[in-house]
Amino acid sequence: xxxxxxxxxxxxxxxxxxxxxxxxxxxxxxxxxxxxxxxxxxxxxxxxxxxxxxxxxxxxxxxxxxxxxxxxxxxxxxxxxxxxxxxxxxxxxxxxxxxxxxxxxxxxxxxxxxxxxxxxxxxxxxxxxxxxxxxxxxxxxxxxxxxxxxxxxxxxxxxxxxxxxxxxxxxxxxxxxxxxxxxxxxxxxxxxxxxxxxxxxxxxxxxxxxxxxxxxxxxxxxxxxxxxxxxxxxxxxxxxxxxxxxxxxxxxxxxxxxxxxxxxxxxxxxxxxxxxxxxxxxxxxxxxxxxxxxxxxxxxxxxxxxxxxxxxxxxxxxxxxxxxxxxxxxxxxxxxxxxxxxxxxxxxxxxxxxxxxxxxxxxxxxxxxxxxxxxxxxxxxxxxxxxxxxxxxxxxxxxxxxxxxxxxxxxxxxxxxxxxxxxxxxxxxxxxxxxxxxxxxxxxxxxxxxxxxxxxxxxxxxxxxxxxxxxxxxxxxxxxxxxxxxxxxxxxxx
Length: 494
Prior knowledge:
Oligomer: single chain
Strand content: 25-35%
Shape: globular
Number of strands: 23
Helix content: 25-40%
Largest sheet: 8 strands, parallel
């Protein structure tokens, strides 16, 4: 017997061979998505006695699919179409007519259980279609990530978290402390779970969350959970694998069904930098005026040129008018490599937009002190357990803002206590700070979201610090914006 499903969506092709000695031996899905190959098998049925494995495959282009099932016995000449399924958007309409079989003039003894098998297979097929979440890999995510999209989503998350302090909050956030599961007591193998619900926040809908044109704000609610695995031993494998992998699960807020899985590594990287961008906008620039982030030139220092240092350098240059960018890294070669990459990006941007050339001067510094001494905005992103900058390093008194993105054992180890004691320190979530900033050496003024919601800003000469921790609500809102953009991309391509 051979069973084949033919689809117009690049395609779902299932082939099975063997009549009395097997049934369907495999199923394969091939489409444009990052899902890759997937085989789903469920149950068994009998036709002429031998078992027939039911294979279910799924296409991300189901909305445009037209599937036809064909049942054949061992003779290819007797192939006879039994039914067709039209898949249109979220529903399937299956029809099977017994008369169709008769019209094919089969041989004397047709497979008498064919119609039952088709009906059974379609029931499983429909259920699988309804239950299977869509998966978007890193390549798909990178296609739609941009600073306008990510900044907006992160700002909405920050506002929503702080909205609980308002007399009549519009938004609602629930984000429990992250869970830590140790997969091996002797080795560093950890699963982190970060759930969040963000209700009644707004995202721009035009060309997919954060586009331009005739965009309008749309109310959203998102139930999500980010899963992160940290397996440090992966670097020693042959070939080596990434030590950290992240995925974000998006659930239907009405039914709780899992709808979408989005690769979360790039989203995490971008949203961390976006939180610093939003904090810099409201804690530093807005003290100079309502449009200062678009007009005022600044000097920026990046201390630590790893993944987060690099994305912060890119984010600052992309969102603000950076006159000079100072780079410092313990291993100078990494800072030099980042400088070259940023210069290449700057050159490409100028070629694409000759009318508004970028003229940022990029300098590799020999010490953290040299990097920060004349900086207006400082981003510190290292694993350092000890302070890399202190108050004396900052030089003359002036308006300064620091984004501290510490990722070490102690989140606040890379900035000296004397800086914190002179600063007005803000966080993304005071509730999270109670768990993650134990022993913090200075009082916390409040949340960045509260500053945004109130329309207030720090005094002109203040030294401010944004102590970044990262929130599951930020991941949820950015993932929602990314999904919206990818869905819009799919609609526009149809």
